[in-house]
Design a protein that fits this description.
single chain; 5 helices; 41% helix; mainly alpha; Recoverin, domain 1
């Protein structure tokens, strides 16, 4: 009986692949903010000034800046809310 259950689970897991989606992918008309658009000086960080140029609210920037160094690294920026596209 246990062998049957294990076999059934394996068959089901193989036949039904999981596709993970990001929140932005699940909503039409929004995308994750593109890093290249924000990191204008190409120093691999996004400063508060660079974020403000792209109209990121200062409060959002502050909430994303986990290590409080005044700039966003790629990991911090990856948690930015999606942006609307036309």
């Amino acid at each position: 009986m246990q062998l049957f259950i294990v076999a059934a689970v394996l068959i089901f897991s193989i036949s039904c692949p999981v596709h993970a989606t990001t929140p932005a992918e699940s909503k039409p008309g929004v995308i994750p903010p593109p890093w290249e658009l924000y990191d204008t000086d190409k120093d691999d960080y996004i400063s508060a000034e660079e974020a403000a140029q792209q109209k990121m609210p200062a409060e959002t920037f502050k909430s994303l800046d986990i290590d409080r160094d005044g700039r966003l690294n790629k990991d911090e920026f990856s948690k930015a809310p999606p942006i609307k596209i036309n």
